[in-house]
């Protein structure tokens, strides 16, 4: 199929290099907020529907963090517990966790302060899939940020999840956590114009010399996907295969509708 469409690689995959990521207006705003969060050691909530590009935004942030100024840890674990959190942080930074949970918390606090005050770097902790967190894990966020009688925080904490997390944090018993959030942003889908640009960007990344998707096909892709990047990727990948099987060099609206029916 690559030779048929004169592509040097497979487009519309998750494996694209951070330097080649498509930057939509929503992601530009998210990037600015995440960078501000890291620089000023804040607590940020990043939300978006499944497939909207939350992990892509996080990848872009990690890619731009200067290792001379930051040390980061990314944890993606829907079953994360307070105990697992502290142990994973310590182990990732090369420290053997103590046996008792109280000692582990002290180790964690000492580590964060040491990185900030002695190494002169900002720890950036990113917790993905946070909409699956138990109440005990959400409650623990308050203590993760509590340093020196809650007078300062040496780290930036970014929690990432689906919009249901926003509603969950609005409940009365999690009000203390919600009030601590200093930065919030919800990713939105690509516009119709951005959808066209995104598809062109993906094809440029694999150096195909020709326009492959018709305007009608892109319109059908946008109408079905509502600008959700993951859905766009699926439709484009499947419709390319459908066109290839039929020997068509151009993906038309009929290919898109055939894929939609299969989905």
From TrEMBL:
InterPro entries: AAA+_ATPase (IPR003593), AAA_22 (IPR049945), ExeA_AAA_ATPase_DNA-bind (IPR052026), P-loop_NTPase (IPR027417). Residues 40-187 form the AAA+ ATPase domain. Gene3D superfamilies: P-loop containing nucleotide triphosphate hydrolases (3.40.50.300). This is AAA ATPase. It comes from the Bacteria. Coiled coil: none annotated. GO terms for molecular function: ATP hydrolysis activity.
């Amino acid at each position: 199929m690559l030779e048929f469409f004169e592509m040097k690689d497979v487009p519309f995959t998750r494996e694209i290099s951070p330097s080649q990521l498509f930057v939509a207006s929503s992601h530009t705003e998210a990037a600015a907020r995440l960078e501000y969060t890291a620089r000023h050691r804040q607590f940020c909530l990043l939300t978006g529907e499944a497939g909207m590009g939350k992990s892509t935004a996080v990848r872009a942030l990690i890619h731009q963090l200067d290792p001379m100024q930051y040390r980061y840890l990314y944890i993606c674990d829907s079953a994360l517990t307070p105990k697992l959190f502290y142990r994973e942080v310590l182990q990732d930074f090369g420290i053997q966790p103590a046996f008792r949970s109280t000692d582990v918390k002290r180790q964690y606090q000492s580590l964060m302060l040491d990185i900030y005050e002695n190494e002169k770097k900002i720890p950036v902790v990113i917790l993905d899939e946070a909409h699956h967190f138990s109440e005990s894990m959400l409650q623990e966020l308050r203590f993760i940020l509590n340093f020196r009688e809650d007078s300062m925080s040496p780290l930036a904490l970014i929690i990432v999840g689906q919009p249901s997390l926003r509603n969950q944090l609005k409940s009365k018993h999690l009000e203390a956590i919600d009030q601590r959030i200093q930065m919030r942003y919800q990713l939105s889908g690509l516009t119709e114009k951005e959808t066209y640009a995104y598809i062109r960007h993906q094809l440029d990344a694999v150096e195909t010399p020709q326009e492959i998707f018709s305007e009608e096909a892109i319109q059908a892709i946008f109408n079905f996907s509502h600008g959700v990047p993951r859905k766009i990727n699926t439709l484009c990948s499947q419709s390319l295969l459908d066109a290839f099987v039929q020997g068509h060099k151009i993906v038309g609206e009929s290919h898109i509708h055939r894929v939609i029916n299969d989905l």
